Amino acid sequence: MIQLADRTAMISPSTTLAIAARAKALAAAGVQVYDFSVGEPDFDTPAHIREAAKRALDEGKTRYAPAAGVPRLRELVAEKLRRENGLNYTPDQVIISTGGKQAILNVMLAVLGPGDEVLIPTPYWVSYPEIAKLARAKPVLVPTEAADGYKLTAEQLRQAITPRTKMLILNSPSNPTGTVYTREELQALAEVLVEKQVAVLSDEMYEKLIYDGETHVSIGSLGPEIFELTLTCNGFSKAYAATGWRLGYAAGPHHVIKAAVDIQSHTTSGATTFAQYGAIAALEGPQEALVAMRREFEGRRDLMYAGLQALKLPCPYPRGAFYAFPSVASTGLDGDTFCARLLEQEHVVCVPGSAFGAPECVRFSYATSRATIEKGLTALARFLSRLD
Ligand code: PLP
Questions:
Q1: Phi, psi (5° rounding) for residue 130?
Q2: Among the four 153, 244, 300, 356, which has the fewest Cβ within 10 Å?
Q3: Which residue has the least CA distance to atom 8 on ligand 1?
Q4: In what order do the strands lie in the sheet with 230-235?
Q5: How many Å lie between the centroid of ligand 1 and the Cα of residue 40?
């Protein structure tokens, strides 16, 4: 029998994908399911982006691209980061990868190794600890408080840093909590990072989904010293409703991006060539579709949040992304049991907070129709009333 490598024992399967699969299986069996587990926009990729990729196929853009990405796309990403985020990267400081997830993996493999500690504010996106472990580093979970909107404070950061701390992972807007850091909060974190010379991986995947007129701030834009310590990760999946295209990017200091490109050149050889031409159109073309999607998500956020409030499931007000993350402690159930029973009794699908390091919570994604949100909340109300 073939023995598995020890690294497989360190990695847990993605709970979110497993639950989404269960929901799909139920739906395929004809059951009416109210699915709040999905982590992807329910819109189609805007037509001009799809057309550009089709054109690229017809024009023969079907061969290898440079491992770091199509040069025009790297240029446009650098331009976008300069214009929108105040980050002065040159195109050769940008790597295009197969989804935001692989961009994160590449830069973590480039800088982390045995003995390095990676600070992960908790609740966290499921893949951070697992990717850190793949890079042979040690994930250090740093609890944050619902009362603080699940934001890491400068004091908590300072206390968590040890001589072995190499990196902090920051995710604003956050999956799963929907929290968004303000400029002042990021400034306070940046000061500690600069003082202690700890790098920050800033995962800005949901930057286009911020509500109430608030704006996204990139931590790397807050001064030359923090810029040198920042790895900015982002992608096309959520902003352009393009999860299946598998296109993301990272930007950072030259030596890190060069190492990430070397790694990528020996693994995937780079992102799919014709898909990258779609991404070029995404950045060059009109951005109205993004605004329309954001507005729709904001309306759904209002609906979801009001519904959870009415049901007395406390949750910090989600300011970005498309998730609400209530605590279910008041029901007497933990998140795992709550999700399992809710699925079984009412066919409402949500993700247990244990997947995100917060076992007393559950995650509801509102990347689904308003009708589903309304019916799902009614089903949830029925479920809760039976628990009383
Ligand atoms: N970062 C966060 C916070 C995410 O939620 C996701 C996807 O769910 C990603 C990164 C990865 O995005 P992609 O689908 O482009 O790999």
A1: -70, -40
A2: 244
A3: 39
A4: 94-97, 248-251, 230-235, 199-203, 165-171, 117-122, 138-143
A5: 9
Among candidate residues 260, 284, 308, the one where a domain is terminated: 284
d(CA 216, CA 220): 12
Tens digits of per-residue pLDDT, 199-222?
A: 999 999 999 999 999 999 999 999
* Number of the ligand 1 atom closest to the C-alpha atom of 248: 15
Cα(170) to centroid(ligand 1), Å: 13
Contact call for residues 346 and 4 (beta carbons, < 8 A): no
Quote the CA–CA distance of 50 and 286 in Å, as a whole number: 13
Cis before 326 (ω within 30): no
**CB 237 near ligand 1, within 6 Å:** yes
Q: Is the pTM of this model over 0.90?
A: yes
341 contact partners, CB below 8 Å, separation of at least 6? 333, 383
What the block records as the tokens of 23 is 């929901």
Task: Tell me the β-bridge partners of 167.
Answer: 118, 199
* End-to-end Cα distance, the chain: 52
Same domain flag for 167 and 186: yes
Closest residue by Cα to residue 97 from 109, 108, 105: 105
pLDDT in tens, 145-202: 999 999 999 999 999 999 999 999 999 999 999 999 999 999 999 999 999 999 999 9
Cα(332) to centroid(ligand 1), Å: 32
Atom of ligand 1 nearest to the CA of 236: 15
Please check whether residues 275 and 299 belong to one and the same domain: no
Q: Is the CB of 272 under 6 A from ligand 1?
A: no
The H or E element spanning position 169 is strand 165-171
Domain membership flag for residue 336: yes
Write out the residue range of the structural domain in which residue 73 sits. 47-284
Q: How far, in Å, from the CA of 233 to the mean position of ligand 1?
A: 10
Using alpha carbons, list the distances in angstroms from residue 307 to 45, 360, 381.
29, 19, 9
